[in-house]
Amino acid sequence: MFQIRRTDMGGHPAQKQKSAWDESIRNEQHEQTAHRPGAVDSAIQQNCALTRDGKELEYLTFPLLEQTKIVRHLFSTRRGGVSCGEFSSMNFSADRGDKRENVLENFRRMADVLGCQVEDMAASHQTHTTNIRRMTAEDRGKGILRPRDYCDVDGMVTNEAGLVLVTFYADCVPLYFVDPVHKAIGLAHSGWRGTVGRMGERMVEAMAEEFGSRPEDLYAAIGPSICRDCYEVSEDVATAFLHMLGDEVAVPGEVPGKYQLDLWLANELILRQAGLSPSHIAVTDICTCHNSEYLFSHRASAGKRGSLAAFLGLKEAKD
């Protein structure tokens, strides 16, 4: 199995600037997680399955979400697909030059892992918005096997068992949501535009409106994406985050006028401000840019890459 480079944000020199308040958040989260029944040491796990042709397919899961026992989910890696070249090998985008038959085979392989059919999946149409759509059984196959009749959708929610939501990535942040009380889920794509637009909070509000979900009942996961060390942004982008979330989310970079933006912390703070308990939030320590041989990264590849995918579905009663 591929040896992932894990990111320890606590060792970064910029962490010396962290406030006592932010340290208390981290300590509270650690203490609550450590005492939660069935708690695990790592927020995210590597897994391996064999494809029908005997090839190893590697994927990532969140133990916190698995503990709810009502969902099947994963985050893809580059391992185990049939695509070639810069798309090698588990690519889920047919819009960047890969062969459609390869992309569909990759979806079939992931469906085998999830225990569903490709026809059960419904995909987003991501344009860096905070638009959210309630998905139903009528949306099965859309964006993968048949055309979408919606556009500009970066977040999806549903309470229909058997429907698997799919979103796409290559450095931006995947956000997973599970409500085990009302048996509802949400999945969202959040780059810097989505994050400064508070996509995480918009998802919490959408699930409350659609299903009656309460923030204290929600479990959330912040998935593999670009880390602060790798994510240099302009001063205007950093300023928007600093005004909204405080000094911890962006620190001056080595280049004058540039900043290093922490999308993981930004999304975590937004979820906490939306009412989620710190013990209900799993935060990745896996950077797509640092692990570009294992995960597609737009920044590391200068745009020559495929797309990763996040999958989330409610289990059916028979599962």
Structure annotation, total helices: 7
What fraction, in percent, of the residue positions are helical?
Answer: 10-25%
Strand tally = 15
Number of domains: 1
- Classify the secondary structure makeup into a structural class: alpha+beta
Largest sheet: 6 strands, mixed
Head-to-tail CA distance between termini: 28 Å
Radius of gyration: 18 Å
CATH superfamily caption: CNF1/YfiH-like putative cysteine hydrolases
Q: What general form does the structure show?
A: globular
CATH class: Alpha Beta
Describe what you observe in this structure:
With 319 residues, the chain is of the alpha+beta class. It has one domain (9-314): CNF1/YfiH-like putative cysteine hydrolases (4-Layer Sandwich), CATH 3.60.140. 23% of the residues lie in helices and 23% in strands. It is built from seven helices and 15 strands. The strands form three sheets. A six-stranded mixed beta sheet has the order 1-2-3-15-7-4. The chain has a six-stranded mixed beta sheet with strand order 5-6-9-8-10-14. The protein has a three-stranded antiparallel beta sheet with strand order 11-13-12. It is globular. The relative contact order is 0.18.
What's the helix and strand layout?
Elements: H1 20-34, E1 45-50, E2 56-61, H2 63-66, E3 71-76, H3 100-114, E4 121-123, E5 132-134, E6 155-158, E7 164-169, E8 173-179, E9 184-190, H4 192-196, H5 199-211, E10 219-222, E11 232-234, H6 235-245, E12 250-252, E13 258-261, H7 263-273, E14 281-283, E15 308-314
Parallel strand pairs: 4-7, 5-6, 10-14
Antiparallel strand pairs: 1-2, 2-3, 3-15, 6-9, 7-15, 8-9, 8-10, 11-13, 12-13
Helix pairs in contact: 5-7
